[in-house]
Amino acid sequence: MQNNIQDLTYRVRHHSTSNDSIKCRLIDEIEHWKMSRNPMNRFRRWVERNGWWSDKDELELRSNIKKQLTVEKAHKPPLEDMFNDVYHQLPSNLQEWTWKKNCLLVGASQLFAYVVINMREFDFLYNYVINLNSLNQLRDALLLWEGNDPYE
């Protein structure tokens, strides 16, 4: 058995930025299609007519979604967590990213300890960083390393 679907579309918006559809049709016509012929509005009216949805259901859903979004905003896990269960050992570009992020977020003494303990595989950085004497010098070195001159 073959199913056929006949479809009629109506462009509510302009075809392109250079085509003003108001020149060839009335605003009332556009509004009529937007409100009465919009498939989402029609579907909602059908669902409500069948008793499967109501304004009360909508208020409850919106309230639950708002609560869920509030909870999600309240707790943001550390960015590194997105890699924790992906790699057995982080690829070097992610190790560098973690190192740079830590350089900008932690104090100088903690940073130098972190570099000495964790980053020996980046010999060129390790040797350079252990000779720096301030966090500002380290920040400037990172900016230069990324191709940004901090003094421009």
From TrEMBL:
<feature type="domain" description="Dehydrogenase E1 component">
    <location>
        <begin position="8"/>
        <end position="69"/>
    </location>
</feature>
<protein>
    <recommendedName>
        <fullName>Dehydrogenase E1 component domain-containing protein</fullName>
    </recommendedName>
</protein>
<dbReference type="InterPro" id="IPR029061">
    <property type="entry name" value="THDP-binding"/>
</dbReference>
<dbReference type="Pfam" id="PF00676">
    <property type="entry name" value="E1_dh"/>
</dbReference>
<dbReference type="GO" id="GO:0016624">
    <property type="term" value="F:oxidoreductase activity, acting on the aldehyde or oxo group of donors, disulfide as acceptor"/>
</dbReference>
<dbReference type="InterPro" id="IPR001017">
    <property type="entry name" value="DH_E1"/>
</dbReference>
<keyword id="KW-0560">Oxidoreductase</keyword>
<dbReference type="GO" id="GO:0009083">
    <property type="term" value="P:branched-chain amino acid catabolic process"/>
</dbReference>
<dbReference type="InterPro" id="IPR050771">
    <property type="entry name" value="Alpha-ketoacid_DH_E1_comp"/>
</dbReference>
